[in-house]
Design brief:
Layout (H helix, E strand, L loop, with lengths): L2 E6 L5 H10 L3 E4 L1 H9 L5 E2 H5 L14 H8 L5 H9 L7 E5 L3 H6 L5 H6 L4 H11 L5 E3 L5 H10 L4 H30 L13 E5 L11 E4 L12 E4 L5 H14 L6 E6 L2 E7 L3 H11 L1 H4 L3 E4 L5 H7 L6 E4 L4 H7 L6 E4 L12 E5 L2 E5 L12 E4 L8 H13 L5 E5 L2 E6 L5 H12 L7 E4 L7 H8 L4 E4 L6 H11 L2 E4 L8
Parallel strand pairs: 1-2, 1-4, 2-3, 4-5, 11-12, 12-13, 19-20, 20-21
Antiparallel strand pairs: 6-7, 8-13, 9-10, 9-11, 14-15, 16-21, 17-18, 17-19
Length: 511
């Protein structure tokens, strides 16, 4: 009689699997909650403690760490000395292990969780059994995901379960334990020092969805997530209609949502090629959308649009007058969805109500020969702490517009220049090698709307020329971090030109 050991935290699919094994004449072993679930279902099952002769100890911390378990998994069936040891020690073979692990990742991500709670969710027996079974996959099957159960039972019943199948399950098992250990080590590094990055950085990911291609058709691509971790951002969003989301769609959708959810007021962000091209805020989302679209109507065409409030019928009616790739919001009314349905190719994405600045608190990028890792740019100096370096001839700029200008500047590729007026962007200059070139682009896009506008810059002005160009177009206020060797020249120019100049003290480069 073949023997299966079942010990799962996630009970999904457990009973059909156990019933199928019992029907095929298998002997079932189980522990804890798994044992209870099988007994309540009326299935014949033996408790592991009875099988090993060693009772559970230390509040359940030690249950399966026993030679009769690991010996039954690890001994090589074709090795005569191993078989002799098994007979001498009365260790029968265990042919199948079904294990999924304590939810460490979900526990560690829970707000307010204590270190003691996280430590209790570090599974020891589960990974040990998984690794023993996976190592001896020549004879033992290990299942670590409920999605594997149906295929296993089907092939087992047909007599077609093979070494190739066991190898595939072993690979999945080692990938799971690697990801699990990576999550634990990352948590411990952060718990020991919230600022320092770990000396060794491990990350275990699994493919959530394949993509048609990457940035270009000749590039393979997929979207990966950390297994077991709570879903957030794109992973927690739900596509309601439209074509499949592409690699570029996901990049732009994240950029749009990451920016829009930084605003408290109803807001809209339109992104093209990973840069905001229009941002608006207002008392309601319709006004926010109209301001965002008006910020740069030409560039906005075919963009990714994100809202931080649910979208209703008025917004949908305004939006279908133009072409968009993706519309994102934390909810859509039934009437709005009916209107969008006329645009069958339009992708509608329902998002969570908040958005992370990065995955699991880290910004990771690949370069030739390695990886760059940093904490996300989550800093923002409060307006009250900004230093007034020059007082303009006109009234002090609106705080809301100043915050809007500087928040958008954080999201724009360096060198970033953002012009804001009356709750919306009117001109954005992005990604130029010279800051004055970004100023000229932003002012050209704004046209007459530059008159009376506020300028937000992601970094200091190295020369006074950027201010001088913007003032020629009518800009009346400037926000920058300061820190240039020529700050004195820039301050003197602002005083001479009669414009407001604020230093925030915080740079926001985005490369």
């Amino acid at each position: 009689m073949a023997t299966a050991l079942l010990s799962v935290y996630d009970k999904t699919g457990l009973l059909p699997l156990a019933e199928g094994l019992h029907g095929l004449g298998w002997h079932l072993l189980a522990t804890g909650g798994t044992l209870k679930a099988l007994l309540e279902a009326g299935l014949p099952v033996q408790e592991v403690a009875d099988y090993t002769g060693a009772p559970e100890a230390f509040g359940g911390r030690v249950k399966t760490l026993h030679p009769r378990i690991h010996g039954g998994l690890l001994y090589r069936r074709e090795e005569a000395s191993h078989v002799a040891d098994a007979e001498r020690l009365d260790i029968p073979p265990i042919d199948l292990v079904v294990v999924n692990l304590y939810p460490f990742e979900a526990t560690a991500a829970r707000p307010g969780v204590t270190p003691a709670e996280c430590i209790e969710q570090i599974d020891i027996g589960g990974p040990s059994m998984i690794r023993s079974a996976a190592k001896n996959h020549a004879a033992v099957t290990v299942l670590t995901d409920p999605g594997q159960y149906e295929m296993f039972l089907s092939k087992l019943a047909e007599g077609t379960w093979s070494l190739a199948d066991r190898k595939a399950c072993a690979l999945a098992a080692f990938q799971r334990t690697a990801a699990y250990d990576a999550a634990i080590s990352a948590w411990m590094a952060i718990a020991l020092d919230a600022e320092a990055l770990p000396e060794r950085f491990s990350i275990g990911l699994e493919a959530k969805q394949g993509l048609r291609y990457g940035e270009n058709p000749h590039q393979h691509a997929a979207f990966y997530v950390r297994p077991g971790a709570p879903e957030e951002g794109i992973a927690a969003s739900r596509q309601l209609q439209g074509k499949e989301l592409s690699f570029n769609n996901l990049l732009d959708a994240d950029a749009a949502a990451r920016t829009v959810f930084q605003f408290a007021a109803p807001s809209c962000v339109i992104v093209k090629h990973n840069n905001p091209c229009g941002v608006g805020r207002g008392p309601h989302v319709l006004e926010a959308f109209l301001k965002a679209q008006a910020g740069d109507p030409v560039s906005s065409f075919g963009g990714i649009v994100a809202f931080n409030r649910p979208v209703g019928v008025e917004v949908a009616q305004a939006m279908v007058q133009s072409f968009w790739e993706v519309v994102m919001a934390p909810g859509f009314s039934a009437e709005a969805l009916a209107i969008f349905a006329a645009k069958k190719q339009l992708r509608i994405l329902e998002t969570p109500a908040t958005w992370p600045l990065s995955a699991h608190g880290l910004d990771l990028r690949s370069i030739g020969g390695g990886f760059l890792v940093q904490r996300p740019d989550d800093a923002f100096t409060p307006v009250e702490q900004w230093q007034v370096k020059a007082t303009g001839r006109g009234p002090r700029p609106l705080m809301e517009d100043m915050v809007l200008a500087q928040t958008v500047a954080k999201a724009v590729k360096s060198n970033a220049i953002v012009l804001v007026r009356d709750g919306g962007t009117v001109g954005i200059g992005a990604g130029q090698m010279s800051r004055v070139d970004s100023v000229e682009i932003a002012c050209r896009k704004a046209g007459d709307r530059a008159k009376g506008a506020i300028l937000g810059s992601d970094a200091f002005f190295p020369f006074a020329d950027g201010l001088e160009v913007a003032v020629q177009h009518g800009v009346t206020a400037f926000i920058e971090p300061g820190g240039s060797l020529r700050d004195k020249d820039v301050i003197e120019a602002a005083q001479r030109l009669g414009v407001w100049l604020f230093f925030t003290g915080t740079r926001h480069f985005r490369h």
